[in-house]
């Protein structure tokens, strides 16, 4: 029931448009510029990464600074996927012979990608590997991270580079993993949960709302200080 409650709360957050609030560190990343590593820093991280994995899963740094490696993505799809028939493989057009079925939640796919591949490209590669005929725009890639014995999940933006996230986090999937899900559109069946669970949802949402409010207040206070400083420089007493 705990897993069902977590998924329901995540769905509720998506309906409210507060998906990023599921992880404080992810909220901060959305407001901070992307940190780019130097070629030497990338080289050092790859060497450290490769020392902890097998030969088949090691990353490779090319002379142009682009590196390649592997990521694992868990397929957590609630709705059936449409799979192209053998006659339709290699094309994007659906066929009358296409079939639909559910993927098990424990299905994990390994992809070989480069540091230049974006989230959109990773989703397209996953669907192509499974011969999925559904529109890639129906799906989203999430990262699942562990912090202080709790699990957080955050939707990745289209501009993110999954292999970079894998490199920075290291090879341990218990610290960072990737999940493919559909874009949530359905309503949550709240009557399926007990009163204590619903009350706990409210406490969590109240806490997150207050945290987001404090972040906004600090941000606008900083803007106000800069504006007042600029105005003080223009309107000096004669």
TrEMBL record:
UniProt GO MF annotations: zinc ion binding
Gene Ontology BP term (one): signal transduction
Classification via Pfam families: Nore1-SARAH, RA
One term under GO cellular component: microtubule
Main location: cytoplasm
Subcellular locations according to the entry: Cytoplasm, Cytoskeleton
Coiled coil: none
Start and end residues of each Ras-associating domain: 95-185
PANTHER family linked to this entry: RAS ASSOCIATION DOMAIN-CONTAINING PROTEIN 3, RASSF
Protein name, UniProt field: Ras-associating domain-containing protein
Organism: Callipepla squamata
Upper taxonomic lineage: Eukaryota, Metazoa, Chordata, Craniata, Vertebrata
